[in-house]
Design goal:
Elements: H1 20-29, H2 60-64, H3 68-75, H4 80-89, H5 102-113, H6 118-125
Helix pairs in contact: 1-4, 5-6
The structure holds iron/sulfur cluster (SF4).
Iron/sulfur cluster binds at residues 38-40, 51, 73-74, 77, 79-80, 83, 96-99.
Length: 133
């Protein structure tokens, strides 16, 4: 897959599957018990859940990708990389994981398929951790 120029982009983009090497690298980034330290534990509140603003179908998937409440929680989460890696290797298509919306994760997968190293693809598509004030 060669990196397209801006004039070559066609929508909707076809999101390529993870290559085996990228999958292995992502699995290597995951802490096996990461869910125990999830910053969102206990704030998942059913219908008001900012991480899963359902229903997510068709065109409103893009609108739901801008979920600033959930992403703000993820910024300070100690297991953000594990969470994002888990969503990528399981091809999770719903919700905010590791500070990344479904659209963010699609972008990461496209960049990985274009040859970006895993670390570069992750850093380029998620906000940096908040620095202590
Ligand atoms: S990164 Fe976000 S979605 Fe993942 S465990 Fe942490 S707070 Fe929850």
């Amino acid at each position: 897959m060669s990196r397209p120029t801006s004039g070559q982009l066609a929508f909707p983009l076809t999101v390529p599957p993870l290559a085996p090497q990228a999958r292995q690298e992502l699995l290597g980034l995951m802490r096996f018990d990461w869910q125990a330290d999830a910053a969102c534990a206990g704030i998942l509140t059913g219908a008001a859940d900012p991480f899963y603003p359902e229903p997510i179908t068709g065109t409103n998937r893009i609108a739901n990708s801008v979920n600033e409440v959930a992403k703000a929680v993820c910024l300070d989460c100690p297991v953000r990389i594990s969470c994002l890696a888990a969503a990528l290797v399981t091809n999770e298509t719903h919700g905010v994981w590791g500070g990344a919306s479904p659209t963010d994760r699609d972008r990461i997968k496209v960049n990985l398929a274009l040859g970006d190293p895993v670390g570069v693809a992750l850093r380029a598509n998620i906000r940096p951790k908040r620095s202590a004030a």
